[in-house]
């Protein structure tokens, strides 16, 4: 038996060679082999028109239009055949209707202008009615144990969908009873670890002209029902994308565009066992997609629901299976990266996103490319890989030059690198393209940044050359390295550094006590601590960098501080660094660790000191990647940790010359049995400053 695909190839060959009779005969054979495939009839109509078999062309064109009434080209074939047969009134009726439904169709407008007025036949009026007919809409869901959510989803479809088909994959709660109470058709579908199989089971029994795919934890927004019906009634394409409005923890929102509405067709099927896709089959079927303003609200990725349903662990196993089956497909690594991201396994997420990018073909722009780039950029900024973030941002903006999300993350990286003019320009681009923001949170932050950066006025230094500057600050006079760290830049620009930390810590220090300051940098904290503990107290300032240590010593002298011992060394738990336990300190009121990298090692090297003197611990923890190891080290000491977060307000940002989405994040840890009022307590080893900030915002 001749394969249909071979027949279509032969048709194209014959048509290209001008053998129209042969092409028409082959197309007629293809129609017999595939009687529901409109392409065969369209080929026959085109070939017959070229071969001047106008009556046969009309019959074939009508057959194509009956099978795919949404495709303009089939109706144009009908109109062309009618014109060729001299039935201008009938042709005019067809083209008039096309102009009404599709005012941008220049070909139809031109045809109307060329045709004389007349009265269409009864048969043509029937064809026009077919163009006008209201399409039937079927909603398809797959569910399992969704009794808490499925009712509200079904309620949002009332008055919109002509039918609802639910594929139940094994519910053991009241889901099926709730579904049946809404008069919905239920299809019992065995679960075979394949979401596409379940979705296609629902498609198999749907009868609508159009399909709406929706999940139990989603709802069609109130105003979107009428909009959806209007869209499919006028659509010439085969698919419609909608806006998915994701509701996340702490009131956060995220928007993305997905194809959820498409014409029912035997060639259109879902693919992939998880994060199933309809786009590949739509492309193979030749269906074009249009965008709509329809909105579907989704709350299935809040922490509470993820914990309740165990989605992330299930998804990770299924994604791993897809990667094993198709190791070169970047899509599955992208999705696994998002899964790790939701579990706050940021190092794993970055590795997956990098692997996905590495597997993209040159110049490839898959539908998920922008989201992949935004996710990776967000994590690179959060983990302080700012130079790499800038490089990725530059490449991403070549493909998506007007993406406000990309400009925002690039702006964040520029801020952290103190490239203020460039950062302000990037944030201004966010405001210029605000209508396309995928993450609604970024717009107010970008606007704040533009205002703050426009009002920055650096303080004048007492002395400055290209290497160092001598500046008067709130805590004293300091020599700063002009090409150095953010501490130097902030002191020179604003006259202060880490004021919120000092205001919290200084009242906790007692006269004559001892403070250990690890990562002392230029000595801002050390000078303030020295004054708080008095002339009989002591501060041990440990700094591993040679230049910062030299500036530290200079600043102690400049401020007349004599009760600070400045040590040039790294602290930790290895044999080649300073272990605080080895110092055999008799008492200690506070251990401040001003660095995130290596903080856990410093704590491990201080166990004896901490056990015998029970000091307060103040540990920098602004890394999403290292947060777990720091919290674990604190818990192993028997301490309770509280977040000290000092986000920049608009006024502070203006002084600092930067607006940071990330606050200055530290942990104030106290011995078991001691409680701290007014701070957010750390929750578990997987906590981080982002989660704490959201809890504090509630």
Explained architecture:
The chain is of the alpha/beta class and 698 residues long. Helix content is 48%, strand content 16%. It is built from 31 helices and 19 strands. The protein has an eight-stranded mixed sheet with strand order 3-2-1-4-7-6-8-5, sandwiched between helices. An eight-stranded mixed sheet has the order 14-13-12-15-16-18-17-19, sandwiched between helices. Strand 13 (538-543), helix 26 (546-558) and strand 14 (564-568) form a beta-alpha-beta unit. Helix 18 (369-382) packs antiparallel against helix 19 (386-399) and helix 18 runs parallel beside helix 20 (404-416). The longest helix is centred in the middle third of the chain and has 15 residues, at 311-325. The model is unreliable at 456-460 and 648-660 (pLDDT under 50).
């Amino acid at each position: 038996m001749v394969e249909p695909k071979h027949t279509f190839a032969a048709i194209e060959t014959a048509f290209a060679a001008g053998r129209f009779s042969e092409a028409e005969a082959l197309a007629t054979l293809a129609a017999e082999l595939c009687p529901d495939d409109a392409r065969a009839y369209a080929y026959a109509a085109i070939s017959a028109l070229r071969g001047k078999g106008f009556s046969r062309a009309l019959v074939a064109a009508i057959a194509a239009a009956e099978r795919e009434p949404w495709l303009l080209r089939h109706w144009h074939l009908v109109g062309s055949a009618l014109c060729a047969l001299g039935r201008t009134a009938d042709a005019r009726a067809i083209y008039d209707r096309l102009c009404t439904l599709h005012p941008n169709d220049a070909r139809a407008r031109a045809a109307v202008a060329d045709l004389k007025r007349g009265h269409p036949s009864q048969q043509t009026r029937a064809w026009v009615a077919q163009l006008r007919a209201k399409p039937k809409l079927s909603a398809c869901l797959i569910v399992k144990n969704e009794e808490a959510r499925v009712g509200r989803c079904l309620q949002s479809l009332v008055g919109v969908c002509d039918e609802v088909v639910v594929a139940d994959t094994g519910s053991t709660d009241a889901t099926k009873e709730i579904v049946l109470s809404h008069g919905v058709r239920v299809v019992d579908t065995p679960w075979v670890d394949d979401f596409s199989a379940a979705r296609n089971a629902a498609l198999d029994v749907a009868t609508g002209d159009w399909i709406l795919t929706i999940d139990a934890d989603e709802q069609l927004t109130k105003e979107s029902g009428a909009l959806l019906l209007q869209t499919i009634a006028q659509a010439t394409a085969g698919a419609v994308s909608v806006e998915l409005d994701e509701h996340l923890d702490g009131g956060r929102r995220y928007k993305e565009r997905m194809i959820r509405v498409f014409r029912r067709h035997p060639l259109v099927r879902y693919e992939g066992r998880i994060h199933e896709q309809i786009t590949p089959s739509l492309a193979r079927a030749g269906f074009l997609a249009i965008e709509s303003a329809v909105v579907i609200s989704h709350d299935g990725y809040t922490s509470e629901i993820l914990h309740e349903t165990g989605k992330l662990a299930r998804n990770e196993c299924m994604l791993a299976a897809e990667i094993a089956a198709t190791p070169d497909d970047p899509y599955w690594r992208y999705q696994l990266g998002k899964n790790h991201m939701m579990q706050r396994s940021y190092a794993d997420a970055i590795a997956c996103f990098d692997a996905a990018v590495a597997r993209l073909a040159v110049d490839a722009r898959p539908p998920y490319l922008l989201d992949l780039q935004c996710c990776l950029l967000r994590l690179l900024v959060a983990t302080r890989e700012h130079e790499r973030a800038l490089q990725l941002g530059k490449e991403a903006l070549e493909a998506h030059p007007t993406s406000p999300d990309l400009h925002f993350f690039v702006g964040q990286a520029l801020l952290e690198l103190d490239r203020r003019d460039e950062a302000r320009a990037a944030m201004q681009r966010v405001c210029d393209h605000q209508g396309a923001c995928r993450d609604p949170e970024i717009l107010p932050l970008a606007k704040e940044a533009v205002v703050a950066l426009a009002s920055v006025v650096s303080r004048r230094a007492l002395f400055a050359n290209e290497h160092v500057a001598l500046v008067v600050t709130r805590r004293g006079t300091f020599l700063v390295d002009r090409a150095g760290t953010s501490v130097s830049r902030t002191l020179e620009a604003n006259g202060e550094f880490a004021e919120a930390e000092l205001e919290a810590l200084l009242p906790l220090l007692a006269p004559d006590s001892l403070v250990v300051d690890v990562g002392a940098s230029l000595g801002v904290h050390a000078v303030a601590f020295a004054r708080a503990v008095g002339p009989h107290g002591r501060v041990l300032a440990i700094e591993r960098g040679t230049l910062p240590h030299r500036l530290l010593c200079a600043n102690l002298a400049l401020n007349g501080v004599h009760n600070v011992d400045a040590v040039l060394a790294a602290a930790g738990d290895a044999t080649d660094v300073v272990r605080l336990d080895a110092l055999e300190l008799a008492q200690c009121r506070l251990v401040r660790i001003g660095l995130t990298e290596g903080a856990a090692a410093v704590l491990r090297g201080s166990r004896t000191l901490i056990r015998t003197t029970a000091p307060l611990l103040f540990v920098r923890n602004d890394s999403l990647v290292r947060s777990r190891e720091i919290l674990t080290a604190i818990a192993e000491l028997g301490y309770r940790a509280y977040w000290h977060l000092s986000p920049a307000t608009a006024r502070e940002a203006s002084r600092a010359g930067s607006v940071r989405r990330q606050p200055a994040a530290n942990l104030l840890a106290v011995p078991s049995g001691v409680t701290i009022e007014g701070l957010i307590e750390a929750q578990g080893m997987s906590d981080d400053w982002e989660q704490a900030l959201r809890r504090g915002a509630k």
